[in-house]
Structure formats: structure tokens, C-alpha cells
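#struct-help
A.M.: can someone run this one for me? Single chain, 224 residues.
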Amino acid sequence: MGPLDEWDRSLVAALNLVLSTQFPMFLTWGDNNHLFYNDAYEALLSGRKNCLGRPFHAVFPEAVDQVEPLMQQALKGDSVYLEDYKIPLRRDGELADTWWSFCYSPILAETGDIKGVLGVVHETTGRVITERALWSSAAALRRVTDQSPALMWRCEPDGTLHWINERLATYAAIQTPSSRHWEDIVHPEDRAESYDIQAAPSRPNRDFATLMATIAGIWSGPSS
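D.P.: on it. C-alpha cells below:
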């Protein structure tokens, strides 16, 4: 890179921008993609030492296959933006899947040539893992409820159906529950009491056991 007073002024300006922000940012410069970053980005290095100024591929060798093509795209003048992009990273000695949302943008030298890449990054691993766990739990719940002989559903506060189990879908011949209201599948003679039951969970100090017993009696099926 040479003496600091000989650095390209565009590099210095970009580096000052990176260092002045509290959001994780880095930049690479030169043919070897020398890595520079701010304090917020350093927290994402997972204990890697002596990274400043080293080639990007030497700092993250396990991520080269996923990241290098994107950096090359930025070096050709095309900015890159991706959300929840999976990148394998070595953390605590173990290779693990991580997910990131980021933008890579080209940095122009004083000559007008593209000489570096500016990266703005945000790790989304925690959210992605949590969402996948929730989807897995929801799928497991759906499998259990679909095997139940009871008629089951979940609705919005206004009564619009959000979800029904397979038994109810078959019983009431419903294919798109989101376009229906729960009262559509309750016998007219049961609707007055059903409205009371539907509102019961929002009432304070309602005995849960009594509530569930009442619901079980009402929702065992429409009146004949």
C-alpha cells in the first residue's frame, strides 16, 4: 500500500467514511483486495487476528467461493445487494452457516478506475435460524392438528379465518379460509353463544379450564 501520504485520495475519503460510522462496514483496495474495516465490523471477525490490511481471501478463505464472485461483480462496476445470503464462516474453530444482508459497491480511484469495494453488512443469522425454527414448529403443529378429529381453527380478532385444520376443511368444504369468517361455519342457532365464546379469551380473570370446556362443547361440531 505504501506510505499513508501517498495513498489515493479516493481511498482515504472512503476509509474516513467507513471509520466514522457505527454500522458494520469494510472496504477492500488494490489488486489483492486489501481489507480495511471499522470497529463495528471488527466485532464480526469472530476472533480473527491481524486482519487489517491483509487480502480479503486470506482473512476469509472459507467464504471465498460465496463472496469472491460478488466482489468481482462490484469491481466491474455493478453494485450488489442481497438479503439473508448464506455464507459459511469458521467461528470458534468450527465451520458454521451464517446469513447476511449486505451491499457491495465499487470505489473509484482518482484516475476514475475502479480500485476497491465498499461493503455495508448486517448479520441476520439469529433471525434466520429463529424463523426457520418457528416454521418447523408451525409445520409440526399443523401435522398434529390435521390428525385430530376435532374441528379446529384460528381467526383474527374480527373473526376472519386465518387457519383451519384438515378435519374442518373437509367438514365445511373450505379451500381458502382467509376469505371466510368463522361464523360462516357455525350453525345459526349456535352463533349467539359462539360470539360470547369467541370474545372470552380477551376478558380478564376468565378461568382457563372453564373456558376450554365451554369451547370444547360448542366447537365439537355445528348443530344438526
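A.M.: thanks! Residues 206-224 have pLDDT under 50 and may be disordered.
D.P.: also worth noting: DSSP finds eight helices and seven strands in the chain.
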